[in-house]
Prior knowledge:
By secondary structure, the protein is mainly beta. The protein is 15% helix and 39% strand. It is built from eight helices and 26 strands. It has helices at residues 23-27, 219-224, 265-272, 276-279, 294-304, 318-326, 331-337, 351-356, and strands spanning 3-6, 12-16, 35-40, 42-44, 61-64, 66-68, 71-76, 86-91, 101-104, 117-119, 123-125, 128-142, 149-162, 172-177, 180-187, 190-197, 210-215, 229-230, 235-237, 240-247, 253-258, 290-291, 307-313, 340-346, 364-368, 374-379.
Amino acid sequence: MRLPNLLLATSAVFIFSSCSGDAGEAADRSPGEKVEVEVLLSSQLPDSDSDRVMRWSPYGQQLTLTEVADGMHAKLTLGPEGTPPIDLRLMKGKGSPYFNRLFIDLNRDGDFDPTELHETEVSESRNKFWSSFDAVVGIPVVDPETGGEAVNPYALSLWYVEDPRVPEEEPVIRFSRRGWMEGSLTLDGIDAVIMVTESAMDGVFSSDDSWALASRDSAADILNAGYARSLEEHAWLFENPYRVTEIDPSGRRVLLAPFDPGMTRIEEAEMNDHLAVDRKAARSGRTVSFLHDFEEAEALARRERKALFVDFETTWCGPCKVMDEWVYTADDVVDASAFVVSVKVDGDERLDLKEKFEVTGFPTMILVGADGEELRRAAGYV
């Protein structure tokens, strides 16, 4: 028989096989004993005033827009199977050359009313025009505690990007989740917080999503640090590892258990530090000499009968900046670059080259032979 044991002033319940005790005692039990912590979570909305804003929201997804009489239309599907989709209507306000109004069918009744209108100031960045909107929609769920119907507030960012240089581009509206689920518990005498957010934005939680575990004192730092790991992976609370063994589709309940990864936290961090080799590389203050004019670099490579190394980057690409810091400053890399002509290409500026080389992400590095044939490419941090 498994007995629940309420922890004082928290939303966690301990479940174990024989007798009761607190988190510290449970974690010290023999390896054969079943020890789990039930944690109840609730939806959290970002609050920039209090700095409670999650920096590890999922990658943006996109919805294809179709033209209708008064704008463009899309359907957003969020929630359990059978939940009606959310209609979106992107429109231009009177006299606006750009889309600056978005109707969101928040109550999913198929109609738009004035309270469902969101308006924005269109901004220009990197030769593109951005229409950005924030909204909170409701996701119907079954509350695992009561068994009754409930609603999870679900904070969204939506944005439409128009590039006048590519008028034939298929129109899409992108979206990402801004909120998260959060619960409190006590582990080994430590007031802790568990945070869960989606990796696949469908409004339903599973092991495909992401989580973080932190002490209450460091929870804000975890939110702001861009920290997250898969729910299939363990997380550390100081030197103690834990794993989510079950998550309710509503995201309102998880089971947490101690986990033995077979190594210490320091050993794991060293094993997972993919920048360690680059940081330790010999440096004498030199850097790879990149040109920034593709045609000039191509002509130089042709004259000198050298291969052309093309590094596609953007001003907003984080891995690109890390490579500039740790890879293109390493002596081995600088020495190797003497045998090629190197050029950096801004993928936002040179759309013609991005299309020609079929670049879909940044950084993308391509080695082109003296005869103009592509020899090799790599994408992402290398």
